[in-house]
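Model the whole thing, not chain by chain.
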Amino acid sequence: MTGWVVIAGLGPGAEGLVTPEVSDALAQATDVIGYIPYVARVAERPGLTLHATDNRVELDRAVHALTLAAQGKRVAVVSSGDPGVFAMASALFDALEAGPEQWRALDIRVLPGITAMLAAAARAGAPLGHDFCAINLSDNLKPWPLIERRLRLAAQADFAMAFYNPRSRSRPEGFGRALDILREECGGDRLILFARAVSTPEEELRIVHLNQAMPDMADMRTVVIVGSSRTRLIERAGQPILYTPRSA
Amino acid sequence: MTGWVVIAGLGPGAEGLVTPEVSDALAQATDVIGYIPYVARVAERPGLTLHATDNRVELDRAVHALTLAAQGKRVAVVSSGDPGVFAMASALFDALEAGPEQWRALDIRVLPGITAMLAAAARAGAPLGHDFCAINLSDNLKPWPLIERRLRLAAQADFAMAFYNPRSRSRPEGFGRALDILREECGGDRLILFARAVSTPEEELRIVHLNQAMPDMADMRTVVIVGSSRTRLIERAGQPILYTPRSA
């Protein structure tokens, strides 16, 4: 038996947003590794071992996956969204680079998925329809001054901006500071979308102006999108449409 | 019959990267509208009318879609990749905003897809594993000085960068200027990925340093990713792995 590792993106939550490529890989896997709520999305079956672990053990998970594959297992490391966007792919390559030379001969593939910001953007309209950036607001792995510098430069570049991990229990104050910086750089009229648990039964969308944005509008399941200076709303019955025109 | 419009992303090319949600919508549509090579990816069947048009008529296509839906048709506007990333969703909302009031009552949904930069990143490793931006290098709809300003600010923010539409016949010189700016801001050692026709039989990946990058390494089917200062290569037999670590 020849082992392999796929780092597979499960998309934001709905089954209809899981690619056939990922479904096929899960059907062939002997082992699935990942954070508890993502592993819970994979159906149990004979011959499949599920390894669910808690958050913040990304490197352990990566080493475990590579070790199993080197033993001949067919391993799927699962992330929500896209594994290459603030998820398990970089952690796996960190472990690969630091690990034994023979791991480099393994069959390793990243299988893309629908990442949270694109699912959220689609639900709201097309706020990322022009140039944009994606920033992880967690300061677990980078210093806060770098986040602040990126926010200011991104605002000056007039990018639309998507924020992952806006708020967690361990960093309750960071997102409030980010909102203050954005108000300073972009003004209070700028549109901001809070998109929570998109494509799941708990989905909630909320669009406000920056001067109405409060830190507690985001939690760990929220992706936040701030429009560029050109982003606009089309009002209509029900949810308005948030979009950034193609021209600037 | 109640009409609707979906703006659906077909992904980068492979069938395994089309979401079930998009496949279901195509199976229910009465009309498919889009650029010739994208409409060619939709199977013909009785009851389905295919409307393939040439490039650069995005607004005409959007008006056509909304007009048909208002007549009760079930219309799928197809884009490659994700329709919300430099594709048809913003064009459709431009047309909606400028069009008759009653169009706003239509059932309009954006169905996300695997966008080119994420498919390319997955194939190469995880170059977008940390903060990044996406810039459309076409100056059809925005002035060149704005592109240049965004490139410089993005480099100063130390984003990894993905470039869509790097090069076309009508703008042969723009991409060369972009590469010059990037060498100025990032230095010649920075890693750059040229990913052409990812997930199709014509797929080609090429990773070089900025001082080796030439404009003709990109064409209309290429997405270009420039690493951040932290982006690195893992050498191994065959294609090396390009990735950006999680920490910065």
